[in-house]
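User
Take a look at the entry that follows and flag anything odd:
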Amino acid sequence: MALYDDIVLGFRFGVFFFPGGGPIPNPLDIRFQKVSGISAEIGTTDVQEGGQNLYTHKLPTRVGYNNLILERGMVVGSLLDIEFNAAMSLFEFSPSNVMVTLLSENKIPLAAWLFLKAYPVKWSTSDLNADEASVVIDTMELAYTRMQILRI
């Protein structure tokens, strides 16, 4: 048994889009190079107590989330690209549930994050440069209503 068998590595993962919140994921758009922005934070408000000058009460207000950022090599003919194009060109949105699943070296799910009612808010493509033979990267940014952390 190796010394670090219990360390979870973050390079095996899948991203699953469930169009319209349905139970069947989009089977084509699951491979991404990088996922970032997985975080939640509880906001607080300060309440001062009359006559108390030594401290301030901090009370929770609501949960806030960063946008989910997905990066992958450019894919031609992707269903996800069609949805992003509709949002960016026609201002038509079809929110999806998105699940990011972390996998073991045996491809067994270890953890997952479920993003509810996700929709695109930013789409960018890497620079094109005739001096470099590099992969064209699409970056997709999603806002969402809520995140649920799932541990297996």
